Amino acid sequence: MLDRVGTGDTPGTLAQPPLIEPVTVYQRSEYNLQEASLRLPKEYQDLWHLAGELLPLDRKLYQHQLDALHLGIKGEDVVITTGTGSGKTEAIPPPVARRPRA
User: Fold this and answer.
1) What pTM did the predictor assign?
2) Where are the domains of the chain?
3) 33 near 51, Cβ under 8 Å?
4) Rounded to whole angstroms, how far apart are CA atoms 20 and 70?
5) 43 Cβ contact partners less than 8 Å away, ≥ 6 residues apart
6) DSSP the chain
7) For 1-38, b where at least 16 C-beta lie within 10 A, e where not — what string?
8) Residue 15: what are its φ and ψ, rounded to 5°?
């Protein structure tokens, strides 16, 4: 019974047939977090210091991460629906900087 490996129709005792999952290749932007931060308005240019442990500086951001960053600082809501391993967690936009009222 322990030697029985599952098939498409019958589950196995200890092993299942291999599952092959296609993984989408997500488009990278041309900027890493530091480069992207330095192109933002002045109040956001230190962002890379705060998030540097999430994203290594030698890694270019995915395009959807860069887009979320730009939309977030404009105060727009962002919803990211991509697959596992696409960097959704690291695409959370920063809070909008509020300027004091005069």
Assistant:
1) 0.68
2) 28-91
3) yes
4) 35
5) 97
6) -TTPBP-SSS--SSB--------PPPPEEEEEHHHHHHTS-GGGTTHHHHHTTTS-TTSEEEHHHHHHHHHHHTT--------TTS-SGGGPPPPPPPPPP-
7) eeeeeeeeeeeeeeeeeeeeeeeeeeeebebbbbebbe
8) -140, 150
As given in the structure block, the two tokens for residue 82 are 């991509």
| Residue 23: both structure tokens together | 């993984």
CA separation (Å) from 72 to 5, 21, 47, 98? Answer: 49, 32, 13, 13
What percentage of residues in the chain have a pLDDT greater than 90?
Answer: 26
Give the residue carrying structure tokens 């890493």: 32
* 23: amino acid identity, one letter: V
Per-residue pLDDT, 100? 53
